[in-house]
Every structure is written in C-alpha cells, then in structure tokens.
Amino acid sequence: GAVVSQHPSRVICKSGTSVKIECRSLDFQATTMFWYRQFPKQSLMLMATSNEGSKATYEQGVEKDKFLINHASLTLSTLTVTSAHPEDSSFYICSAHQMTSGSTDTQYFGPGTRLTVL
Amino acid sequence: GENVEQHPSTLSVQEGDSAVIKCTYSDSASNYFPWYKQELGKRPQLIIDIRSNVGEKKDQRIAVTLNKTAKHFSLHITETQPEDSAVYFCAATPSGGTALIFGKGTTLSVSS
Q1: Nearest to B51 among A42, A44, A103 (CB)
Q2: What pLDDT, on the 0 to 100 scale, is given for residue A53?
Q3: Which of A24, A59, B90, B99 has its CA at a distance of 20 to 30 angstroms from the CA of residue A43?
Q4: Mutate to test the interface with B, among A43, A77, A103, A114 (most CBs of B within 10 A)
Q5: Shortest Cα–Cα distance, A48 to chain B (Å)
Q6: Phi then psi for A86, rounded to 5 degrees?
C-alpha cells in the first residue's frame, strides 16, 4: 500500500524558534498533500491543502504567515511553524492524496510529528 | 462548508458484541466517506470507505452504510475484539475537493 513518511517524529523547541516538518510520499506521486493538526483527545483539523507547484490553500483561521507550506515536488511537502509559541504545541499530521483506479479520493496519512514548544 | 457530526463520543462493548458509530454530514454534494481508526499516538489508518454511488460496503467484520437522502453514514463492527479498541473517525469529502473533514471521533472500548 501507499506509504507516507514524516520527519521528525518528535521535536522540542524553544519559544520563538522555527520548526520545519517534512512529509514524503515514498512510493507514489502526490499532487496534493494535506496538513492537519490534532490536539490531545480531539479530532484532526484541516490546516491547509498543499498543491505541487502552487500556493497552499489555508483553512479559515489558520495564519499562512505562521504556518508556511511548500510543496517542492510530487513527493515532498514541508510545513514550517515560524516563531513557535507554547500554544502551537500539537500533533501535526500530513496526508498525501493518491489517485486510485477510477477514484480520486484516497488519502494516506503520515505518522505525525509531536511538536512541543517550551 | 461541510460539517460532520459523529455519535457517540464514547462506546463501550463486551467482546463479541457489535458496535455501531453514526455520522451525519451537511453538504449534499459530498461524495466520499472514509472511516479511520487511530490508536494512541499513531497515524489514522483507513479501515473502510464508501462512495456516494454505493449504499453499503462490507469487509469481513466491518461494514459501512450510506443513506444519501438522510445524509448519514454508519460504521458497523461485528464480533468485536479487544484489539478493536481505538478512536474511530468518520470523514467526508466536500464537493469539488479532496480534503477530508473529520467528525470528532468515537472512543471504542472492547472489554474481554
């Protein structure tokens, strides 16, 4: 099956620093990747849709200048949390959209990145 | 935009019993409805999905039904086992897009 990797799996940083998270589709090309945020015991909240070669589309309430997304290739999208603060501490999960036979909807998730901002 | 409601938030069953989780959605043009299982600290795993041109789909102990008229879909797990214990999320894909909008999740506990 389709495999999506994410790096790093855990990161602890000081307040005010920036953190970059990578999401890779390992065995397929993903024209679209998605970034989600999940707080403890809560659901996944869509942050943005990342399209290869174009600007990301952010959901309402998500600051695009704070959460920088780059989709450099068909297998790599990055999320940079700039000037991180403790309230940004969360579980960040990416997903990659794979075209399946006759359908366009299957998404596969990365293992997530646990960000802790001190 | 699309809104997905999921019930119940917690569900406890005895091993061998059936479990049913229900979701409703608001966008009548949504056309794809996956279910994910997430264990603590891990990624969501797709367990079954259904598309709007199908009313029911089954995969061993897991089945999903879709009622487009009522805009609701349900996950059915039969002969539950302790390893089925996890958080289950339903989701829907709004029309014209590929992003998933998730329900709030159901914590299923199966006791032996």
Answers
A1: A103
A2: 82
A3: A24
A4: A43
A5: 9
A6: -50, -35
pLDDT per residue as tens digits for the range A77-88: 999 999 999 999
Give the distance, in angstroms, between the CA of residue A87 and the centroid of all CA atoms in the same chain: 17
CA–CA dist B12, B75 (Å, integer) = 15
Mean pLDDT by 10 residues, chain B (112 residues): 94 98 94 94 92 90 96 97 97 81 96 94
A58-73 average pLDDT score? 93
pLDDT tens digits, one per residue of A33-60: 999 999 988 999 999 999 888 889 999 9
List Cβ neighbours of A1 (8 Å cut-off, separation of 6 or more).
A108
In 3D space, the residue among A110, A106, A118 whose CA is nearest the CA of residue A38 turns out to be A110
Amino acid at A99: M
- The reported pLDDT for the residue numbered B29 is 87
Q: Is pLDDT at A104 greater than 70 in this prediction?
A: no
Contact A46 B100 (CB under 8 A): yes
Q: Alpha-carbon torsion B36, A1, A95, B66, what sign?
A: negative
d(CA A43, CA A35): 13
Shortest alpha-carbon distance between residue A62 and chain B (Å):
15
Out of A105, A109, A110, name the one closest to residue B32 (CB).
Answer: A105
